[in-house]
């Protein structure tokens, strides 16, 4: 009897000791510190966070007039006003919606695109004019491509690709960057020779107008943005008053140079610009006018 009682006591002690060990092992589980929790939260946040530009920035980068330089892998080589293009304008009172005006070299196509991140969804069908053109080699290819657009990819501020739903590039676009020319300028050199004549012009790229004082006579004319080449610009249909001036030779040299302008480029500073001929030679050097000089 005493032996049985002793064995039972040993069994109870073993059971009690085992439970105590189990509880001690459980209590030794490393606690979760505030720093580790913060680290895990940060890692989760960084993993789930996507670098998506704000919608306003996307719309701002996409808006404007784009020349179509390639359609379905074929380069577009049409010169002048018949060059295919797409103009994108933010729709009024409709967030994330672009008004689209496409020109296929003959007819205009009008429609709407919904923009979300890099995706493009048409808002209804495009409506086209029905003009018949004898020489519009990209008409059907451009019209087809516009209706296939499902996303876009901006390479930089001047180049964008439009892609189909299967990721195929259907069009490559180029935007002229001539905004630096806007404003009032004085001509400081013609054909590389400095001048003292007070020749002042105002250039408005958006309105496609130029006006000013050619040194003696007033000048007005049109601007043509050449979509076939980078920063291509031409000054056409120039008209002047007909006053007799002592330094008419400088004025005539300026007008001749202005008619031969083919491209523009920024100067060494934001207040300088140069106009070049078809050979890339600088024929007019410009310096931006100060407010006092404009008033003079």
Automatic annotation (TrEMBL):
Species of origin: Duncaniella freteri
Segments forming domain DUF306: 63-173, 182-286
Comp. bias intervals (Low complexity): 27-49
Span list, region Disordered: 24-49
InterPro entries: DUF306_Meta_HslJ (IPR005184), HslJ-like_sf (IPR038670), Hsp_HslJ-like (IPR053147)
Gene3D superfamilies, per the entry: 2.40.128.270
Pfam families, sorted: META
Name of the featured protein: META domain-containing protein
